[in-house]
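Hi there. Long-time user, first ticket. I'm pasting a complex I've been working with (about 519 residues overall). I'd like to know whether the download I got is complete or cut off, because the file seemed smaller than I expected. Thanks.
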Amino acid sequence: MTTLAFLLTESLNALSQAALLFFLGVGLTLIFGLMRIVNFAHGALYMLGAFVGYSLAKGSGNFWVALVGAPLLVGMFGAGFELTVLRRLYRRDAHAFLMVTFGLALVVGEAVRLIWGPDALQVAPPSALAGVVFLLDEPFPVYRLFLVATGIVVAVAIWQFLERSKLGLLIRATSQNADMASALGVDVKRIRSSVFGIGCALAALGGVLAAPLVTASNGMAATVIIDAFVIVIIGGMGSFLGSLIGALLVGFVQVFGNYYLPDLALAFMYLVMLAVLVVRPGGLLGKET
Amino acid sequence: MLKLEGLNTHYGASHVLQGVDLDMPRGQISAVLGRNGVGKTTMVKTIMGLVAPSGGRVRVGSTDITGWAPHLVAREGVAYVPEGRLIFPDLTVMENIRVGERPTTRWPLARLLELFPSLRERAANRGSQLSGGEQQMLAIARALVSDPKVMLLDEPSQGLAPLVVRELARVIRLLREEGVTVLLVEQNMKLAEAVADQLHIMVKGRMVYRATPAVFRAEEAAIRSRFLTV
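Hi, the file is complete. Here it is re-exported in full:
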């Protein structure tokens, strides 16, 4: 393999990894930015997305149904959870959120085990994305290219949504000062439910997209939630662009670290986080608080 | 237009508003003066729904808005220009205004930019990049775009240069001409005297004095030493 081919395929690998991490990190950071709460259930919702996606794909025989349906269903579940449970906690201190979202993670985890069983479930990618393409004579999975493309499309879509749409503007205003936004006529409660739902839907999207690569399994929540937290901390809590940069950094460090120093790959991710925090305690694009 | 009846507010154990009565006729400017900490800002926040009252009523026209959520109070036609302006620092000038925009308003963007020429030049700047005076004009523009019946201005002249305060007085008078009812909470007695139709003085969570500026001027020395100087 030529050096160029190696760099190209490993970089694409890293980008596809970053795309999956971004779906998680961006939801986590949007929720934190708006509500100042850390959603411990985010990994569990990612896993729920993978399993719901498995059932939808199996039932319909169509992966695309799962890709659209799982985020929608999990997003609605998230918005419903905010409406019925989280909404009662905003006047309390942050510990209440940690306990409640951690509890949700446990409940979702057990529910998944009860409904889908303890075994990992294979999700087949659609036939159009199943093969490999040759890049500089090296084979590369089409599905990973699809992940990269999806990551770019979703990142641009969220960015445009936040910058251009009225709801995006109201989300940004509420993130900066919720009381002031409400005094200007913004229904802050509705904004919170929407953003929690959108964040959960994005986690589920990550789960469905990850399933063909790693199978839908009970363990997938635990591994991925740590990565998501690292991304959000590196990028700066609450920053959309920060979560994108954090996902790219962690994706590249994981893929190249695994190649060059597989024993230390995991440590690298934390070293990057440590380095960022030493220089910028609030994260790359975060505000120091 | 805006009426407070026996309004009470507690912060924990401290009884901040102790039965505030205030009747503001439509299209008039009522100024509330008072020393620091007598409850002026709490009164404004209670009207706006940002702080829950523990007793009494708030009415806008014939509608009882006591205990309503802030966004519903705003939609009922009450606009809020808070102490310290509280501009959204990372939103541009235009975005700051658009947050409160309604489908129909007598104050569309074009008119607001005509009224505040300094904002037109800064339209694409972020809120955090504006001077104090520009931020104050933006806070008023952001409140006006919702086409309010009542405008609550909390210490708008704070920290502003005399020239800017004069500009502020011009804008407040214009609001009156447009039929907006204004509640002006001020430490700057000159501004309050210059624009207000009624002056009120608050002491320890109660209104203790009410007069027109002309009457106030006649007895100013006595009133000042009794209620206002520290």
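A couple of notes from our side: The interface with chain B takes residues 166, 169-170, 172-173, 176-177, 179-189 of chain A (CB under 8 Å). Chain A has eleven helices and two strands.
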